[in-house]
Specification:
The complex is a heterodimer of chains A (184) and B (79).
Chain A (H helix, E strand, L loop, with lengths): L6 H20 L2 H17 L10 H22 L20 H12 L3 H12 L4 H8 L3 H19 L26
Helix pairs in contact in A: 1-2, 1-3, 2-3, 3-6, 5-6, 5-7, 6-7
Chain B lengths: L9 H4 L1 H4 L6 H33 L5 H16 L1
Classes of the chains: A mainly alpha (184), B mainly alpha (79).
Amino acid sequence: MTETPSFADALIAAIPNLRAFAHSLSGDGQLSNDLVQETLLKAWAHKDSFVPDSNLKAWLFTILRNTYFTHYRKSQREELDEDHAAMNACVPPTQLTQLEFEDMRKALMRLSPDHREALLLITAEGFSYEDAARVCGCAVGTMKSRVNRARSRLVDETSGQPPKSEGDHHRPAEETPPIKSSSR
Amino acid sequence: MHHRFDEPEEHSRSDAKITGGERHPEAEADRAAVARLPGIATQLIGERMRVMYSTMVSEPVPDELLNLIRKLESKEGSD
């Protein structure tokens, strides 16, 4: 007989992916742990708003990205060194060489946060465009466009072509979607 | 406006005009390779990204995060 995992167990199971997403978004190992911790606290505090049997991962990722963008906007205002995000690799790669790993990370960090999260959700996390759009609070078409632009930019960078200017590099102020459970 | 990944480079498209429009199998193969490159690059980037990401996912979870959940759970249980 299988027992339904508790909310706590489900949160624990999601931690590795939350950390990877936070680390890839922020580029900072310590910050990513702080973001995950804050996400877990918010999720626990709002767990009554999570609809059982809906997509917990998408719900948690929504909280995490909103937490990150709140931090990001704050750090933009404080004019933190924009390169800090490309530093602090904390784990040696096992399948990519260190150089490839760093190149990939740095190239990723040169994308705008919008494009970075779109590429991470679709390419790395394997979210559907619909779920990723829900997480980011945008239209599915916008998500597709962001992924294409992000890919195009990474291809340009890795092929040695000068990257095209990214019109929305500085993310405009955007309303943070409310913390509520995904419908799926 | 972005170019399409599968669109050949301008210089490769003009090769036929330079050579008088003759069709050479080797040149055709070169052009096809150029046309395919961006697609392959996109694929490689996707693969690299997934490898990088899965490496991060497999990192050990810090105890502080696990303890946090357990504390929240036990606090709720005692309330």
